[in-house]
Amino acid sequence: YIPSSHWYDYYTGSLIQAKQEFITVNAPLETIPIFLQGGAIIPTQGYASNTKYSRNLIKKDLFDYI
């Protein structure tokens, strides 16, 4: 079930316009379907061996400012 809004596929960036409906998503077993709502700010952070170093790796991707 996806509420009515503009949603984006995390992996492809493709737009999904849902109208309060159930949708079927094709996804391989090793991939979890992730959808990001338009207008959301999604903080991301690069990998490092500890949090002190990873704080310097904050990413600014497309989905950070949807």
Automatic annotation (TrEMBL):
InterPro entries noted in UniProt: Glyco_hydro_31_C, Glyco_hydro_b
Domain Glycosyl hydrolase family 31 C-terminal residues, every copy: 1-42
One GO MF term attached to the UniProt entry: hydrolase activity, hydrolyzing O-glycosyl compounds
Gene3D superfamilies for the chain: Golgi alpha-mannosidase II
Classification via Pfam families: Glyco_hydro_31_3rd (PF21365)
Identification of the protein by name: Glycosyl hydrolase family 31 C-terminal domain-containing protein
Organism classification: Eukaryota, Metazoa, Spiralia, Gnathifera, Rotifera
